[in-house]
Specification:
This protein is an all-alpha fold. The protein is 55% helix and 3% strand.
């Protein structure tokens, strides 16, 4: 129910509109609708210009750039995924809350809480005062949000990362647990950097995806070095229907090292 003051303010608003201006509906809404249509039309126009002026081959640039870049290589060990610039703040939050138990807090908890507070502003801030000098709490809160977003975006943009750094740090632990040879150690480094732990698990590290098996005791199966190399080069040839991508960019030495690592992986107590 509207209070007496709210009803009085609304009557004053209607009189003021009748005397000096136009009501929000339908005038302002009509202007917003027209502007939204213009913006969407510009986006569609730019997309069409990009599509129809670029070639179908990778690298054939048009007015706004190529339609296709170089073909993705699922076996690369040199690519470091990074988000678009407007997600750098969230990207850096993940570096702060890097423990698995706290990832949900950085990706869902904090952003969702801030969005809820933003949507609730009209409900919990009912003051009529709008002068900045009379709203110190709102001003400080806004400045803190802007500063934190700016700092996190900058830190995310300038963050330096090494390929698979967190996984490579586990290699000494794997070496001790599996009693790896020098060739096996080099293979473990490749394993840590090549993105294998995105689908497989190894001695508690990694994430099981697409039914990929734990490779901690892969060597206990006695499949042999050549089997491992053939499987790395063409998984679906060795195991029909395998969703694992082929790793075709390794050198002969790297195949040998990675295969040796897998064959020397006898399980958590295999090296004991």
């Amino acid at each position: 129910m509207a209070t007496k003051d709210q009803r009085r303010d609304f009557e004053l608003y209607k009189k003021d509109v009748a005397r000096r201006g136009k009501p929000f509906y339908p005038y302002a809404m009509f202007h917003d609708t027209v502007m939204s249509f213009v913006v969407v039309s510009v986006i569609i126009g730019l997309a069409a210009l990009w599509y129809f002026t670029s070639g179908e081959k990778p690298g054939d640039a048009g007015v706004l750039g190529p339609r296709y870049a170089a073909e993705a290589d699922p076996g690369t060990t040199q690519f470091i995924p990074r988000p678009d610039w407007y997600f750098y703040f969230l990207f850096y939050l993940l570096r702060i809350f890097k423990w698995p138990e706290s990832v949900i807090l950085a990706t869902v908890g904090i952003p969702t809480l801030l969005m809820i507070l933003l949507f609730m502003v009209p409900f919990y801030d009912r003051r009529r005062e709008r002068r900045i000098s009379r709203r110190p709490v709102a001003v400080v809160a806004a400045l803190l949000v802007i500063a934190s977003m700016g700092i996190l975006t900058y830190k995310g943009a300038t963050a330096k990362e090494s390929l698979g750094s967190e996984n490579v740090a586990k290699v000494p632990e794997w070496t001790k647990a599996q009693n790896l040879s020098q060739v096996g150690v080099e293979g473990a480094k490749i394993f840590a950097q090549a993105g294998c732990l995105g689908c497989h698990t190894y001695l508690g590290a990694g994430s099981p995806n697409l039914g990929a098996p734990d490779l901690s005791a892969e060597g206990a199966k006695g499949r042999g070095i050549q089997f491992q190399i053939d499987h790395l080069m063409c998984p679906s040839c060795v195991n029909p229907g395998s969703p694992m991508p082929a790793f075709k960019n390794f050198t002969k030495e790297q195949y040998q090292q990675l295969a040796t690592f897998l064959e020397e992986s006898k399980g958590p107590k295999g090296g004991g």
